[in-house]
Amino acid sequence: MKPPLAIYSVYLRNHTPEGTFQSCIPDLKRIKDMGIDTIWLLPIHPIGQKNRKGSLGCPYSIQDYYGINPEYGRMADFEEFLSRAHNKGIRVIMDIVFNHTSYDSVLYQTHPEYFHCNDKGQIRSRITEWSDVIDLDHSQRGVKEYLIDVLLFWVNRGIDGFRCDVASLVPLSFWKSAYQACSLINDQLIWIGESIDESFKSFLSERGIPFSTDAELYQYFHALYEYDSYPCWRRALDNGDKMDRYMELIQDQECHRTPGRFRLRFIENHDQLRSRALLKEGRLWDNWMSFLILNRGIPLIYGGQEYSCEKVPSLFEKDLFSRDPALDKSLFIHRLLKIKQSIEQEDYTLSFDWTTVKGVLRLSWDLVGRRVIAFLNMGQVKGLYPERNLSKARDILNAEPITYTALGLVIQDYPMIVEVFL
Question: Are 183 and 295 contained in the same domain?
Fold first, then answer.
């Protein structure tokens, strides 16, 4: 499987005023021009009516795994969207939610025995806050076969992979069977697993709810969420003293990486705050966005992130993200992805330095005959970085020339990425 260069997350309801497959097709060119090669569609299925959240419901409360949400169009519209994306060289992966369904799902109506009951015999979610869904019981005979048939249905329609919701809560034995069955049809499918953070693992353990570790999931998933480090990053933004711990986690990820397995990198997604709301000062957003894209792994761009949106859109209502041309960072993202693409075409050694100048992250990629170095100013630092041998270096991200003295590189507030030929 060729890993995605970058994944762009599309929630159809809030992507265009019409909120349909057809209305999203014209936007494929803009997405492709940004440098994106893979689109992840949030769930596209009909949404349950019973206990629904908001007036339109949560897309993760699925009524029919085989259907298309009528808000979005028909199956023919989905197939046209998929075809148009493929024509532009964009792969499309879809959200799969196999931990739970809506209360009034087709599956519950036909097979109520497939679902968990509490000690009172009531069908419920094991997670109280997920009040609009009921949990599948994967120990019941027939569940695995039904769900694998769902996957095969979509693979046969040309989908390029799956983003699997709360993959940690679905038994590992299921993912093994699903991966093997789907690979018989298409062994180039992309498998992205939504893994979970330590606090949620503790929550589940206290309630006796089993889950798979990241190491276990990596047997069948190409990429997992970076929830092993994201909570620490959020704490570090609030308390700069914790940034050292975050950098240790990032370096640990690099040291213990497995070839062919990746972290899904993000600084926002549909479950988290917008990154622009967290990174308002100076050019902090530009620097962290550079790190997101250039660090080893698969960067995730959530629809609206490229327009510097601060408001988290609702999952349960019509809530378009704004597209202010003055705040559009698509070209900036395009430049970063071009640099990433040139690096990823080769084998490389990646090194991190956070201690030489506190507040400035130095990334270095050693390639054949050249070295790429990023200087990312995370602390709004002013002064010099004591880097040598940059007299012939050129900045490959910005049009700005670098300022280099005998004592080192003059640090700017914006990210600098220089290339040195060896």
Answer: yes
pLDDT at 35 over 80: yes
Residue with tokens 């795994």: 65
pLDDT band, residue 39 (cuts 50/70/90): very high
- Cα–Cα–Cα angle for 125, 127, 128, nearest 5°? 85
Report yes or no on 263 lying in a domain.
Answer: yes
Please tell me whether residues 334 and 210 are part of one structural domain.
Answer: yes
Domain boundary among 310, 345, 380: 345
Same domain? For 222 and 319 the reply is: yes
User: Long-range contacts of range 331-336, CB-CB < 8 Å, 24 or more positions apart?
Assistant: 332/286, 332/289, 333/34, 333/35, 333/289, 333/293, 333/301, 333/306, 334/33, 334/34, 334/35, 335/397, 336/35, 336/289, 336/290, 336/293, 336/294, 336/397
What single-letter DSSP state applies at residue 359?
T
Query: What distance in Å separates the CA atoms of residue 93 and residue 160, rounded to the nearest whole number?
Result: 5
Please tell me the distance from the alpha carbon of residue 405 to that of residue 402, in angstroms, as a whole number: 10
> In this structure, are strands 190-193 and 223-225 parallel, antiparallel, or unpaired?
parallel
**Is residue 172 classed exposed, middle or buried when 0-12, 13-18 and 19+ CB atoms within 10 A define those classes?**
middle
CATH number where 405 lies? 2.60.40
Q: How many domains is the chain built from?
A: 2
CATH of the domain at 329: 3.20.20.80
Angle separating helix axes 143-155 and 172-183, nearest 10 degrees: 40
Last residue of a domain, one of 326, 345, 364: 345
Model pLDDT for residues 115-156, shown as the tens digit of each residue: 999 888 889 899 989 999 999 999 999 999 999 999 999 999
pLDDT of residue 146: 98
The whole domain housing 118 covers: 7-345
CB 359 within 8 A of CB 340: no
Q: Which SS3 state, helix, strand or coil, does residue 198 take?
A: helix
Do 7 and 225 meet the contact criterion of CB atoms below 8 Å apart?
no
Task: Let me know whether 199 and 325 are in one domain.
Answer: yes
CB of 264 closer than 8 Å to CB of 224: yes
pTM of the model: 0.96
